Amino acid sequence: MDPFLSEIVSGPAARLQRRSAKIIYGDKIVVVGGGAPVVVQSMTNTDTADVIGTAIQIKELARAGSELVRITVNNHEAARAVPDIRNQLDKMGIDVPLVGDFHYNGHTLLKEVPECAQALSKYRINPGNVGQGAKRDSQFAQMIEIACEYDKPVRIGVNWGSLDQALLARIMDTNAARSQPWSAQSVMYEALITSAIENAERAEELGLSGDKIILSCKVSGVQDLIAVYRELSARCDYPLHLGLTEAGMGSKGIVASTAALSVLLQQGIGDTIRISLTPEPGGDRCKEIVVAQEILQTMGLRKFTPMVIACPGCGRTTSTVFQELADDIQTFLRDQMPVWKTQYPGVENMNVAVMGCIVNGPGESKHAHIGISLPGTGESPAAPVFIDGQKAMTLRGEHIAQEFQKIVLDYVQRNYAQK
User: Which residues are documented as binding site?
Assistant: First the structure.
């Protein structure tokens, strides 16, 4: 009898089939859903009325890998700045599509500043912030009608911090009439999901094509997000935007976002993601893009940049040389990618190992495309380099870091240059 009951396989579930939405600017087309790769997006934190400052940050985000960039459009000054921002980006050769984030007065801004409506590639509408009472329906309708007029897709983005109170009251009344009422948490989940789907259906009734609608239901709790998106995914086939809203700062925000999104992505749920990190004072806004890319790459869903494999260090590796080299190589690879992705197709599949001692160093280096095993405490001051599984050379002396970086660059040029 075969002792092995079944083959052990790995990998995420197939992407769930959704509608396909296209976000377009000029010749640039970003496809969300429909089996397309999961799209990475981000949002500026500049004052949109500051045309130059906002354009510069958008350029930085786009070069870091953001495939869509959302900007706040909260007043007339911001709305009037949008076409100027678009023009500045054109001058810089940045064709990333722009998404306008509207709350409270979007119907007014889109109507009174048509240049803004035209310059944006997509609108984000929060159903809880489009108006109250009778005004809510008419103001939502105005925004959808403008989207139809300019042929723009929309994201209907529900957030539990700004949920439509009338809809919540309706669902609470329904729940109160049940023989066994749901918990308050379940009622909130239902309100989020119902709001997203009902508003999407309303948008279609108003004439917006179903392939121009993306949905999101943002919450700030990991288990809440997983529960909401599982149910939302089961009830509709619109493309879904994933993100843990107000994820937080530093390791907390990174860990929480990774925990929530990885579970959903593993199940085939999610077509575009944004990591809502609070930047540290003076921090780099692009960090949220790096985190998003690394989630997708480590999950095996996309490839963005060569991966650096490095050991954590222990008592055998008291020197900081391998830490510094790993950091230098990782920074070098990411910095090169805006150019490399056009000159060296496939380079994002490369793995580089930087190991700190003889225990796992040679073995791990052999598994990588290029690997180096640096000397640990008490080891011979030599660093064997492995290329495609074979020992190629041994580096010694004070310039190991520079020599290894050149070896990596030579490997890229030799193996990934366009034939």
Answer: 311, 314, 357, 364
